[in-house]
Design brief:
The chain is mainly β. The protein has strands spanning 2-5, 8-10, 16-22, 32-37, 44-49, 56-58, 66-71, 76-81, 90-96, 108-112. It is built from no helices and 10 strands. The strands form 2 sheets. It has a 6-stranded mixed sheet, with no helix packed on it. Strands 1-3-8-7 form a 4-stranded antiparallel sheet, with no helix packed on it. The protein starts with a strand and ends with a strand.
Length: 114
């Protein structure tokens, strides 16, 4: 079970940190990623962190603004989001990468608006 939290309403240029907790200990040994979905759009990749936390990858439009990390002991994956833009408004989800049919959590809503 994946549980995302930390979303909210923030002004353009602001910051938020999302958290993703898993009850499945096997996730601590897998690549994990954040995805997002805006109304009327397909779910898209945002950022990935490998099993050890030593390698990270970002979508072009968030590179340099978003930072992914993980705490393997706590089995939590974080997404620090800075310099937020209205286009970042979406429901954010985490999952293993690739998801391979693993159930999605409910996600957490991020709204960037003045």
């Amino acid at each position: 079970l994946l549980t995302e939290s930390g979303g909210g309403l923030v002004q353009p240029g602001g910051s938020l940190t999302l958290s993703c907790a898993s009850s499945d200990r096997s996730f601590a040994s897998e690549d994990m990623a954040w995805f997002r979905q805006s109304p009327g759009k397909e779910r898209e990749f945002v950022a990935d962190v490998n099993w050890s936390g030593g390698a990270k990858y970002y979508a072009d439009d968030v590179n340099g603004r978003f930072f992914i990390s993980r705490d393997r002991q706590k089995n939590i994956v974080y997404l620090q989001m800075t310099s937020l833009k209205p286009d970042d408004t979406a429901v954010y989800y985490c999952n293993r990468n690739p998801p391979d049919g693993n159930p999605w959590g409910q996600g957490t809503q991020v709204t960037v608006s003045s």
